[in-house]
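Intended use. Records like the one below are meant for learning the mapping from a protein sequence to its folded structure. Do not use them to infer anything beyond what is encoded.
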Amino acid sequence: MTLYKAPLDDMRFALYDVLGAETVLGRLEGGEAHTRDLIDAVLDEAARFNEQVLAPLNASGDAEGCHYDKDTATVATPAGFKEAYRQYAEGGWAGLTAREAFGGQALPAVVGALTKEMIDSANLAWGIYPLLSHGATDALEHHGDDWQKDVFLKPLVEGRWTGTMCLTEPQAGSDLGLLKTRAEPNGDGSYRVTGTKIFISAGEHDFAENIVHLVLARLPDAPAGSRGISMLVVPKFKVGKDGAMGERNAVAAGAIEHKMGIKGSATCVMNFDEAEGWLIGPPHKGLTAMFTMMNAARLAVGIQGLAVSERALQNSLHYARERLQMRALSGPKLPDKPADPLTVHPDVRRMLLTQRAFVEGGRVLAAYAALQSDIEARAADTEERKTAGELLSFLIPIAKGLLTEAAQECTKEALQIFGGHGYIAEHGMEQFVRDARIITLYEGTTQIQALDLLGRKIMQLQGAGLKHFLGEISTFCQANQANDAVKAFVGPLAVAAKTWGDLTQAIAQSAQANPEELGAAAVDYLYFSGYVTLAYFWARSVLAAEGSRLSTERRQAKRDTAAFYFARILPRIHVHKAAIEAGVATLPDIL
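Structure written out for the chain above:
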């Protein structure tokens, strides 16, 4: 079994020392209850559950996979998964951040983010089952009718029911304007939903007594394209407005996908055959509700990238310290041993530092984004809430795009450190590589994140979030330009941030002449943005480490990793800038 130890010390460093979350949360609505003692107790218990319950099921769940019964159209999850979910629900984890009005504990989103990281490090495939329930809860809370909230939210929050997002169809991948699923009115407020959805995570399983599907469909009078999409709630078992659960609805899994990774997660083809559903929100406005789900899910998938990178790092670091192979180029370091450990080799250290730089910097990014969610929801000042919302919206595609792409690099480097032993199943590295591969694809590919960042968050919204973020970086750099603790990082960060702003303006000007320039620049722009974003959080981490409770060794490790990041990873922005400036002219038609 691969190692997993929840990185509580670094989580607390990111939360309290770098981000000052104790102070931030304390001044928000309900913040008086969110004390450090409470949050630490929650994180401690989350660590216990994930280390002892979920982590041991990771390899066995991958080896066994899910089982589909064609005769009953049901799915059995791997051994131990159902029991783990029972403990999860009974422990109150399903409603950790949900509102108390619906039976939740109303803890901050940033605590939920750190807890989710532990879940996904312990068992990425298992963690997908509750992930979609959170998205369904958000959509129903923000867009559902009062009776829908009363009926659906409490069992979802309690974990007795689970939720899904049913978007994709065989002919309509990311282009939802092409979807064909239809919803016809019954005359009593309900609808008959008919169509086929594919790639539906947790569409069918044995965890819960009911599964609540949120389905995108077209009403009979729907306009063409994405403007004609509505969202409906379609439960596996019919539910009355009084909350009573009735007969089986006409929705069933037609198959489960045989996948490269996350084999313990049931990815289903879902068939709706005049299934009873209820409209969520106004007709033809389903995309609004969908994006409520999607934004929460995209940040959650970014955290998945962080999580699998963390576990890969833990195992490759342990192996590199223990494995004896060859001698250091400068001479034996352990002359009494037959060889030196892998860590004496510079390129092994490069691979380990690359992982650490993405993991520890990415953790601050994910926690920062989640903290903006808390500020947006609970701050007393309207302007502060607005700013936090714009920052969060801007950072979501960066967090999703960069952290999932970084996971490809981190798991690859971890496998490389193991050498041939990494390629076989015994050590678990090949599972991390396979599991991580999907996260750049679902909830929007990296290109879709990049187009969202550049096309929508920058162009359509006039870069509101970018302006806030660059302003924050500028304030940090000005305040610390003479601070010996971070002076070495402040100068390069200030230059990179200015280049970011200038590059954004240059792309906007090019796009006015030719809109295709946006598509040509988008992915490189996302990487550029992500690398500068992590540089900012690494500079803040070095500053925070100086006055923290970290040991002398850990403080030096933070400084060393930051120096590595600035010297060897941040310079990648120059390659991406050059690619952006090359323009769409270098991308000719493929004949």
